[in-house]
Amino acid sequence: MPRGFFDRPSHEVAPELLGRVLVHGPVAARLTEVEAYGGPGEDPAAHTYRGRTPRNAVMFGAPGHLYVYFTYGMHFCANLVCLGEGHGSAVLLRAGEIVAGLDVARARRSGGVPGRRMPDRDLGRGPARLAVALGLAREHNGLDAIREGLPDDGQHRLSGIPEGSAAVLTGTPPGPARIRSGPRTGVSTAKDTPWRFWIDDEPTVSPYRPHVPRRRSTAATSVGEAPSS
Question: For residue 145, which of 1, 26, 61, 74 sits 20 to 30 Å off, Cα-Cα?
Answer without folding.
Answer: 74
